[in-house]
Amino acid sequence: MKVVKFGGSSLADAAHIKQVCSIILEDRQRRLVVVSAPGKRFPEDTKVTDMLIELANKYMETENPSYQEESEKQLQLIVERYRSIAVELEMNMDIVTVIEADLRKRLALRKNGKRHDDGIVREISDEQFMDLMKAAGEDNSAKLVASYLIGLGINAQYINPKDAGMILSKEYGNARVLPHSYETLNKLNDNGNIMIFPGFFGYSSDGDVVTFSRGGSDVTGAVLAAAVKASVYENFTDVDSVYAANPNIIDNPKPIPVFTYAEMRELSYAGFTVLHEETLEQVYKMGIPVNIKNTNNPKAPGTFIVNERMDTDSVPVVGIAADGGFFTINVTKYMMNREIGFGRRLLHILEDEGVSYEHTPSGIDSICVIIRNKNCSVEIRNRIIRKIYNDLKVDSVSLHENIAIVMLVGQGMLKRIGVASRATGALSKAGVNISMINQGSSEVSIMFGIDEKDSLNAVKALYQEFFEE
């Protein structure tokens, strides 16, 4: 069995859905299909997920009469989006009735609360309600695609993630799959139909809808591929290949036919938007190859992500990525290296505040902790700094904002002398100041910390150095 995932751009309108269904039907192994919510039809369009977020926000303000009217208008815009697809597909309009009823049922839960197993009705929190509404995009997209295939006479079936066993941690907007889910999901192998499975969400152990972080339909596909032990996980998007750099920065960047899991993980983390950064975890453990393909050009071979690639000697660097939205906490203390447990106590302060860190470059008397802005509010930052001063008795603590990280990635760097020298030389020529360098122990990547305003120039300089010789 192949697990196949289609992104929002592949499901944006009726023409794309027809193309998706033809791709599914041309290969009998494509029996487990993960779908996203409809994406943009044109650059100025709005994704259905964003429309649902706006609806949720408006509905949470319905105490104001004007917001009641606005939320109803927003609801009708979403229903009309699905209706237009159904009309163009010449489907029975019953599916539109089903979709509208589903949306209204979700809204009603906000107002009326949810009855739990103990018989008590409890209010739905804001974050719980937001996940419930966001998940409606994928859920109703799956119902529509399954209904269309059934109308064509195909043995197709909508799969409810709760019934299938997609059980996630109760972390709204940032859930993780629970280990026991895999055994239950493996039973999908026994289903002889083409299964249409909504991406992006699952259910907590107590039955609440919870979502992965944004873009999480990729993760759904990977979890299912691992659970059913798929021969390959095909991830269809709107590009022929994964490129060595962002095409929005570099004109006609070099396509890369093969990446390793480790290389793609590093690039996804640093801003490659082809895959969600958590996608590869489960398929990596099972050794299942991932094939990135183009819905609009399905015959193109695309890019494979595998355990190993054979050309590491001739191709030391395969990709360059940059991502902003970081800040650093820089700590100095004389004789830090002789103070047993200093690093542990520093990171324990972050743990107490519920903050994860990205990198920790260090010297003998200094250490720098790199953190994503979104993981740490200004209030928490101030508390962390006070605790570092008071608990660790340091000489100084400084906070630097507007930091970007640039990743130079390639397993071949391990065997090639001078890669770091070439990279720093290229950045120097481009006038990019490097505030920190960190090379992982696996030597799959070199990370440069720079000012956010220099990130585009940095990518261009590194691409020219390694790909335009």
Averaged pLDDT: 93
Question: End-to-end distance, in Å?
Answer: 42 Å
Instruction: Give Rg in angstroms.
Output: 24 Å
Silhouette? globular
Number of DSSP-assigned strands: 19
Q: How is the main sheet built?
A: 8 strands, mixed
Strand order of the largest sheet: 5-6-2-1-9-13-14-12
Q: How much helix is in the residues?
A: 25-40%
Q: Enumerate the spans where pLDDT stays under 50 for 5 or more consecutive residues.
A: none
Separate helix tally: 14
Strand share of the residues? 15-25%
Helix/strand structural class: alpha/beta
Report what the structure shows.
Helix 2 crosses helix 5 and helix 4 (94-112) runs antiparallel to helix 5 (126-151). It contains 14 helices and 19 strands. The protein is globular. The strands form 5 sheets. It has an 8-stranded mixed β-sheet with strand order 5-6-2-1-9-13-14-12, sandwiched between helices. Strands 16-15-17-19-18 form a 5-stranded antiparallel β-sheet. A two-stranded antiparallel sheet has the order 3-4. By secondary structure, it is an alpha/beta fold.
Can you give keywords for this protein?
469 residues; alpha/beta; 8-stranded mixed β-sheet; 5-stranded antiparallel β-sheet; 14 helices; 19 strands; globular
Could you provide a short overview of the structure?
By secondary structure, the chain is of the alpha/beta class. The protein has helices at residues 14-25, 48-59, 65-88, 94-112, 126-151, 161-164, 181-185, 217-228, 261-269, 280-286, 342-352, 378-392, 419-429, 455-467; strands spanning 2-6, 30-35, 114-115, 121-122, 156-158, 194-198, 201-203, 209-211, 232-237, 242-243, 255-256, 258-260, 290-294, 303-306, 319-332, 366-372, 396-409, 436-439, 445-451. Helices cover 38% and strands 21% of the residues.
